UniProtKB/TrEMBL annotation, chain A:
<feature type="transmembrane region" description="Helical">
    <location>
        <begin position="179"/>
        <end position="199"/>
    </location>
</feature>
<keyword id="KW-1133">Transmembrane helix</keyword>
<feature type="transmembrane region" description="Helical">
    <location>
        <begin position="388"/>
        <end position="412"/>
    </location>
</feature>
<feature type="transmembrane region" description="Helical">
    <location>
        <begin position="240"/>
        <end position="259"/>
    </location>
</feature>
<keyword id="KW-0472">Membrane</keyword>
<protein>
    <submittedName>
        <fullName>Peptide/nickel transport system permease protein</fullName>
    </submittedName>
</protein>
<feature type="transmembrane region" description="Helical">
    <location>
        <begin position="330"/>
        <end position="347"/>
    </location>
</feature>
<feature type="transmembrane region" description="Helical">
    <location>
        <begin position="279"/>
        <end position="300"/>
    </location>
</feature>
<feature type="compositionally biased region" description="Low complexity">
    <location>
        <begin position="571"/>
        <end position="581"/>
    </location>
</feature>
Automatic annotation (TrEMBL), chain B:
<keyword id="KW-0813">Transport</keyword>
<dbReference type="InterPro" id="IPR050319">
    <property type="entry name" value="ABC_transp_ATP-bind"/>
</dbReference>
<comment type="similarity">
    <text>Belongs to the ABC transporter superfamily.</text>
</comment>
<dbReference type="GO" id="GO:0005524">
    <property type="term" value="F:ATP binding"/>
</dbReference>
<dbReference type="InterPro" id="IPR003439">
    <property type="entry name" value="ABC_transporter-like_ATP-bd"/>
</dbReference>
<dbReference type="InterPro" id="IPR017871">
    <property type="entry name" value="ABC_transporter-like_CS"/>
</dbReference>
<keyword id="KW-0547">Nucleotide-binding</keyword>
<dbReference type="Pfam" id="PF00005">
    <property type="entry name" value="ABC_tran"/>
</dbReference>
<protein>
    <submittedName>
        <fullName>Peptide/nickel transport system ATP-binding protein</fullName>
    </submittedName>
</protein>
Length: 601, 226
């Protein structure tokens, strides 16, 4: 046990140091020659001669290699100097601190919205406890609220509230009224997720015996309610970090949509301009904000649980089975509609400019035409392939990575924690800044956040397979370790991993679309959902259908993602904890042996 | 009777086992020593948690001891640093507590047995070995076409005996082979195990809770929890 703990700590230390080094050396790592981009940005009229480029390289401090670049940057940071921008040549510090301030304010507003929404979702569930009614879990409202990714919700709010109804300004950052829409776009999905987790936890807590005992003992309602909520919150507080990381990532998209001069937009601008020192400073501040928020979550946990407990001490409340049939029907309907779009649109040409610019929807053009006069139905249908095929590739690669890393065990702990703490959009911004925006880069960013959960599952499956009695006994039959691994352990893990990966597919597709929407993924004229939505948003006042078509496809995928996540909850909690599925798969004898072992020890 | 005079085929010297590492380590097997001659049967008895199954696992080479060593036929079989030598695995075979552990669930009994015998002996045609072992264990050969889930517990345990005996071991380890069976079947299986090992001159280490089975063995080794 202690051996593996040491491995875990070493892994974390090494990955931490590697992360710091890489962060410091980002300008050097850039694949596109930074000297050339600086030259372009600053002296547009100058010819990029080798002499001029070399001079700029020395000026930027890139002549010393990655380690020197990194150490130089970090020593500057420790002295409070965040460096100079490659593009403007000015000090980075003031601009990025301002951006952080704006983002913090926006996050506070969003947190208020999120808490209000979470409270609204939990209240009915909590009161059902007192009336001793059967619990139903979070229900459709929570699902609907979590279904929309931030960039989609932000676009929808912009189109409906700011453009159509003209109730609030569509962009800017000049007072409370400009903060309402972005705070809603960020807060609604976060609040929906938080409320859903809490409501499910409340439903599970109600099953615990002490609630019945307290009710029978005639404890006052307020006391029971407080107890239930506290217990449920303690179970959910660990997920708080995930919700907050979602908000951090979502902020990039929301700030971009509403043109808010926050940290997310700052990062995006730096990535697009290849201004790597600015990107470094932004990433550093975002990481600091994440650490701060993590510390706050830790305090909340301490307050709720009365101190840090070793993992597993507080059992998670029993998982409530949601209405599986409803979830299945939802997935079927959403998938059916997507297939219909695919079937109608695939035969059409997504690139041909044959229609009137921004032609409204008609029988011949069901989704209308885009700003170049291309058929939107064809583009959305081909975008399905453009979004889903890379997603399938990402999932398959993630499974391979997961199997390889699961074998390494604790060694993979450090990278996994870093990957878990990275919002996909942030990974996309950094990769786009280094490699330039491309489908491959976006896929890499999404892969980076997809492998950790699959690795955890793979490790559990491998443990499970190794613990099966017949696998334990195979060495007696003279079968080598390698063959046991290849013929008996691996086949038992690939199937469940593939199923798990396919369930993650819609989520992966949405992350990819978010990057496309921000211009960090697929490039025009490629049809890709996120990119289509991003293109359409420029014409939203004149031709709202340009955003409607890709939005419909994205909403259908989101609905699939959330409904499917509900299904997965019911299934993988069983297999992750082990023995329960082992009895299911191995049948009676396995259970016999387990019972026998229990009496033995 | 010659068996009693011959040299021990299995020698266990001062073997202990520890579960876990560092602060959480706890001893699961007190120092144990034992000599078994060919054809002898030793009943290993003791209360739950005494380390009977651990001793069986170490003898089988499924785990290494923390101290001490195990010799088979005078050569090193298993020490704290090394498991059984490759190519010699045939020498010690076992019958598990749960017969399904001896067989891959998705394979027929025959396939599991053939594969094991082929691997352990290095012979290509193993039909005669399997037929002879099946005869000794009174297993209907037709049952070999079925999967472990399609036969009764007693039949599966007889098949597990066939799998263990067919490669031609010199030591057989049976870890409570009858605990999952009803009383009559258990008696029949124990009797088969004892008579086969005696007939073939195999040293038998039989972990059991049943005093009547222990009575039929040559000797009884009682181990107590550390």
């Amino acid at each position: 046990m202690r051996h593996s703990n040491v491995l875990g700590i070493v892994s974390r230390l090494v990955s931490g140091v590697a992360l710091l080094l890489v962060a410091g050396a980002l300008p050097w790592l850039s694949q596109r020659d930074p000297a050339a981009s600086v030259l372009r940005a600053r002296y547009a009229e100058l010819e990029p001669t080798p002499e001029a480029l070399a001079a700029i390289r020395t000026e930027l401090g890139l002549d010393g290699g990655p380690v020197v670049t990194s150490i130089r940057w970090w020593s500057g940071v420790l002295r409070g100097d965040l460096g100079t921008s490659w593009v403007s040549g000015g000090d980075i510090g003031p601009g990025v601190w301002n951006a952080l301030g704006v983002s913090m304010t926006l996050t506070l507003f969003a947190a208020a919205v999120a808490l209000a929404i979470a409270a609204a979702i939990v209240t009915p569930a909590a009161f059902r406890v007192l009336r001793d009614r059967p619990q139903r879990g979070s229900g459709p409202v929570g699902v609907a609220l979590t279904a929309l990714p931030e960039f989609l919700l932000a676009s929808a709010l912009l189109v409906v509230v700011a453009v159509q109804l003209q109730w609030l300004p569509p962009y800017g950052w000049s007072g409370l009224h400009t903060a309402i829409l972005p705070a809603l776009a960020l807060g609604i999905p976060a609040g929906g997720l938080l409320g859903r987790l809490l409501a499910d936890a409340v439903a599970g807590v109600t099953e615990e015996r002490w609630v019945t005992v307290w009710l029978l003992a005639g404890a006052p309602r307020a006391v029971i309610l407080t107890g239930v909520l506290r217990r449920a919150a303690a179970a959910v507080v660990d997920q708080l970090g995930l919700v907050l990381i979602g908000v951090l990532g979502g902020a990039v998209a929301v700030e971009q949509v509403f043109a808010i001069p926050g940290l997310g937009r700052y990062l995006l601008g730096a990535a697009n301009a290849q201004d790597l020192p600015a990107l470094q400073a932004g990433v550093l501040l975002m990481a600091l904000a994440a650490v701060l928020v993590g510390a706050l979550a830790g305090l909340a946990r301490r307050a709720l649980r009365g101190g840090p407990l070793p993992p597993g001490t507080l059992p998670p409340p029993a998982e409530r089975r949601g209405d599986d049939r409803a979830a299945r029907r939802t997935v079927a309907v959403a998938l059916g509609l997507l297939l219909l779009i695919l079937a109608l649109g695939l035969p059409r040409d997504p690139y041909a400019i044959t229609h009137e610019r921004l032609a409204p929807p008609s029988l011949a053009l069901p989704f209308g035409a885009d700003a170049s006069g291309r058929d939107l139905l064809a583009r959305v249908a081909h975008g399905t392939l453009g979004t889903l095929l890379p997603s399938v590739g990402i999932v398959l690669l993630a499974i391979v990575v997961a199997l390889l890393l699961a074998v390494l065990g604790e060694i993979a702990r450090g990278p996994a924690e870093i990957a878990n703490a990275t919002p996909p959009i942030l990974a996309g911004v950094i990769i786009a800044a280094l490699l330039g925006p491309s489908v491959g880069g976006a896929a890499l960013a999404v892969l980076w956040v997809t492998w950790p959960p699959l690795t955890a599952h793979a490790a559990a499956l491998i443990d499970e397979a190794n613990a099966m009695p017949h696998v334990r006994w195979l060495p007696v039959a003279g079968i080598s370790r390698l063959e046991i691994w290849a013929r008996h352990v691996l086949p038992a893990t690939v199937g469940p991993l593939l199923r798990h990966g396919m369930l993650r597919l819609p989520g992966v597709a949405l992350a990819l679309a978010a990057l496309g929407f921000l211009g960090l993924g697929a490039q025009p004229p490629l049809p890709e959902w996120g990119l289509l939505l991003g293109e359409g948003i420029d014409y939203v006042e004149r031709a709202p259908w340009t955003t409607l078509a890709p939005a419909v496809a994205l909403v259908l995928t989101s609905v699939c993602a959330v409904a499917v996540a509900g299904l997965r909850n019911n299934r993988t909690t069983g297999s992750a904890t082990g023995p329960r599925t082992r009895t299911g798969r191995g049948g009676e004898p396995v259970r016999n042996r387990e019972a026998a072992q229990r009496t033995e020890t | 009777m010659t068996a009693r005079l011959s040299a021990p085929i299995l020698t266990i010297t001062g073997v202990t086992a520890v579960h876990g590492r560092g602060a959480r380590a706890r001893a699961v097997l007190a120092p144990t020593s034992l000599d078994v001659r060919p054809g002898e049967s030793v009943a290993v008895v003791g209360r739950s948690g005494a380390g009977k199954s651990t001793l069986a696992d170490i003898t089988l080479g499924l785990r290494t001891p923390s101290e001490g060593r195990v010799l088979v036929g005078g050569t090193e079989w298993c020490t704290p640093s090394a498991g059984p030598p490759r190519g010699e695995r045939r020498l010690v075979q076992g019958v598990p507590q749960d017969p399904s552990a001896a067989f891959v669930p998705r394979w027929t009994l025959g396939r599991s047995i053939d594969q094991a015998v082929r691997r352990l002996t290095g012979e290509r045609d193993v039909g005669s070995r399997v037929r002879r072992a099946a005869e000794l264990a009174r297993l209907d050969l037709q049952l070999l076409d079925r999967r472990p889930s399609e036969v009764s517990g007693g039949q599966a345990q007889r098949a597990a005996i066939v799998r263990a005996v067919a490669p031609g071991p010199v030591v057989l380890v049976a870890d409570e082979p009858t605990s999952a069976l009803d009383a009559d079947t258990a008696r029949a299986v124990s009797a088969a195990l004892l008579s086969i090992t005696q007939e073939l001159g195999i040293a038998l280490l039989l972990v059991t809770h049943d005093p009547t089975v222990a009575e039929h063995c040559t000797r009884t080794l009682t181990i107590t929890a550390p």
